[in-house]
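Bench notes, afternoon.
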Amino acid sequence: MKLTRSSSPSVAFSRRVLASAVLSAMLASTPLAWAQQEPAAPVPAAAPAAPAAVSQLAELSSVPAPTIAARAWITLDATSGQVLASSNPDMQIEPASLTKIMTAYVVFNALKEKRITLDQQVTVSENAWRTGGSRMFIEPRKPVTVDELIQGVIVQSGNDASVALAEAVGGTEASFATLMNQEAQRLGMTQTNFLNSTGLPDPQHVTTVADLAKLAVALINDHPEEFHYYKQKEFTYNKITQPNRNRLLWADPSVDGMKTGHTDAAGYCLVSTAMRGDRRILTVLAGADSEASRAEESLKLLNWSFQNFDSVKLYGENQPGLDVRVWEGTVETVKLGPAQPIWVTVPRGKSGEIKPMAQRTDPLIAPLTKGQQVGTLQLTLDNKVLRTEPLVVQEAVERAGFFGRMIDWAKRQFE
């Protein structure tokens, strides 16, 4: 098998150039864009339709997504959370050992909440020891720590290790599966149902590549201190050394995760992620016909995603929001903007074409609290909505005294 990696672009310099270009373009266009959309008001019958939201950025790209030999797949920019392209993202599939991403997520939650510790010794039950499929080769009555079991789950894909951890955290694997489903519901994985911690086949043990992408991004964001396990290339336990089955860890140095899976029904599956510069791309692929194919097709998606899209940070500390009139307050204007800086991904070469459009409450009447939502901000490209964010008050405005309020009331009668 020959895996090739396209050369990545100059990263740090290009990020700074793009961010500067977009900021200049947005500052130039902001007065027009804001003015077109404020204030929020009933839409006349003859008003033009609002811009439609784009479901995946491939719709706006001049470079089509590659043909991928898999039943279902998705690629997204984990920094912005935007989907770049997908095929059958909501088709229910068997997750196989990709299930263990949720197993690890629940275990990492328990570590963060100090319900377990990495050096804690776990008793291996007969149930865990006898679990079939891929194994870490743990044994009853032989000490094993939580840290070792995590490596057994992530690096070796051990079903026995998964059950042992499930029992350590949940008491029983069935109870642990309940925790898995609670987290899935919280994360918005609406097409997912877990029955076990391993991914061993069951007709009701299902998910989608879109749901798995949500889970993988959540694990990366919520547990960065534990993510290092996913780039570990091998692990030795019980004098048995097993390599990580993710071939991309050897093929591309920017790849640092994440998890393989395989059953006869599911085919060969892979969640892969790479960090190049300040951007992270994540792909989920299910139903490839071989180990080699799942690696090659995933790398193809990673390279296409990095090469044909870029992400920029908007509305940071040095990028002003909108100054608007506030009535009956101790000041006359207040700044509005998103609650926090926004990362936006666009097709390469279109960064300067992002347009901010806002709808807000009018009139704004004090008192206003910092963070109070007073409208929405849409970022559009080619008349398509890339994302919608709350428009909030940047600084609190106190209510003016009686005479100040009366003066403002009189002024409003003539506006």
